[in-house]
Amino acid sequence: MSHILDIKTGGKSLNEAEKVLIMIHGRGVSAQDILSLSQHLNVKDYALLAPQATNGTWYPSSFIAPVEQNEPWLSSAIETIGKTVQMVLDAGIKAENIYFFGFSQGACLTLEFLARNAQKFGGAAAIIGGVIGDKINRENYKGDFVQTPIFLGTSNPDFHVPVERVYATANILREMNADITEKVYSNFGHSINQEEIELANTLIFK
């Protein structure tokens, strides 16, 4: 299965905005759901783009399952993010003005895309996520973030995302010259908390 490119929008139009936020939803929810979160972020002057996963999920198995169990959905999902970014670049907006926000499965997909395509972006917030695969294939990850700010927030424990993978992801992104802030909340559960929103606004959408 591959994803059909279906991008929901909000905020300013691409030809009016100077900055763009790409929002990546989690499993079983929708692009509209994650777009609604933007009202809590300092992004009122941004164009908002949220690709919709076909059938509501980016890939079928756990993000720490062997990669082949998630193909061809995973490769198609990464390609979908790439096409979304390309659409923004084609509108004349530079990569350094492109921002990302992902939650859960969407955070994993965001981090996997970024690690494979490191360059100077505006910034990213990834809540409860890490790079994808049963083992981390460091060879997939190339480029230089040039101190792009990236915020990783998570709960420990989390039913879906082991905190060890969040730490490992943070270390990889640091090696690739990202400016990483990580925050681990004890027993918070699989959701986004107010402090994470405030940190995203302070660190990323400032």
From TrEMBL:
| Start and end residues of each Phospholipase/carboxylesterase/thioesterase domain | 16-203
Which GO molecular function annotation, any one, does this entry have? Answer: hydrolase activity
The alphabetized UniProt keywords are: Hydrolase
Question: By its UniProt entry, which InterPro entries does this protein fall under?
Answer: AB_hydrolase_fold, LYPA1-2/EST-like, PLipase/COase/thioEstase
Domain of life here?
Bacteria
The reply on keyword Cell division is: no
Gene3D superfamilies in the cross-refs: alpha/beta hydrolase
Pfam assignment, any one: Abhydrolase_2
Query: What family name appears in the similarity comment?
Result: Belongs to the AB hydrolase superfamily. AB hydrolase 2 family.
Record-given protein name: Dienelactone hydrolase family protein
Organism, as annotated:
Chryseobacterium ginsengisoli
